Amino acid sequence: MNKNIENILACPKCKSKLSLQKDNIPCLKCKSNYKIINNTPVFLDKLSYDEISEESFRDKLRKNTKLFRIFKKIHNVLGPPDSNYSKRARVKSGKVDFPVKYTIRENDLILNIGSSSKKIYSNAINLDIGLFENVDVVADGKEIPFKDNSFDLVLIESVLEHVDEPERVIKEAYRVLKSRGRIYISIPFVFVFHGSPNDFNRYTLNGLKKRLEITGFKIKRLGIISGPSSTISQMLRYYLATLFSFNNDFLFSLFLNIFGWITFPIKYFDIVLNKYKKAHLMASIIYAIGEK
Ligand SMILES: [Zn+2]
Questions:
Q1: Rounded to the nearest whole angstrom, what is the distance from the C-alpha of residue 33 to the centroid of ligand 1?
Q2: Residue pLDDT, tens place only, 4-44
Q3: Ligand 1 centroid vs 130 CA: distance in angstroms?
Q4: Is pLDDT above 70 for 59?
Q5: CATH code, domain with 49
Q6: Does the pLDDT value for residue 204 go beyond 80?
Q7: What are the start-end ranges of the H helices in 53-181?
Q8: What are the C-alpha distances in Å from 35 to residues 32, 98, 110, 145?
Q9: Range of the domain at 285
Q10: How far is the CA of 133 from the centre of ligand 1 (A)?
Q11: How far apart are CA 36 and CA 212, in angstroms?
Q12: Would the pLDDT of 51 be above 70?
């Protein structure tokens, strides 16, 4: 188990002290009992990613890992570049969206909510709903299994659109942050439906700001990661694939790749447009940094 979490774990339901044992973690107050699987604390009853995901082609492939790897390799070679342009910044542990660099400080304890299997930040605790590689804690962002005032920084990158009650996650992030701790949220605004496993929300720049303020955060920065050209590039790709698919899934996937190759260069106009005042009107992905 990640050494950094042993002292700050708390019952996700009643926030009381847990008794860390070999294979399980009982709550001393409400008597809930949680498991330790593969040396990772699991705070969800329903563990399986597949059970809660929608039955898409990708998910079916993911079950057959070998086939998924082959498909991914082919897609990596033949698939079009991302339709979204975003400026990247280099931090110690790798490349991140550029605004993240304003939040990262040496020796900070970071909570990365919805981390997936990526270990981008070396001093981050990765939290996700599935027992993926590099996940330190399996839990729901709406009931975070940590004590109050535990973290210096909470990252929620392109995650809140997949949560049915995003405000609860923001509230929980506020609770587990230390005083003057920071939150970084990125979320799509004008973006196609993408279920992984599901897709419920879009925020405007004003909406993101308001929700952070309602929770108690002071806004430090607010802006755009991918602007209007990324939106047009993505929408054209999906619109043309739908138009030429004749309602057939295979043709849709095929044309998504073909039109992806034709339309992806549009995104580079965002190198300039991201700086325009009106860019947020139809931005693809936005972000905010708040302080507790
Ligand atoms: Zn409890």
A1: 8
A2: 888 899 999 999 989 888 889 999 899 899 999 888 999 98
A3: 21
A4: no
A5: 3.40.50.150
A6: yes
A7: 57-63, 65-78, 166-176
A8: 10, 37, 23, 13
A9: 3-291
A10: 27
A11: 33
A12: no
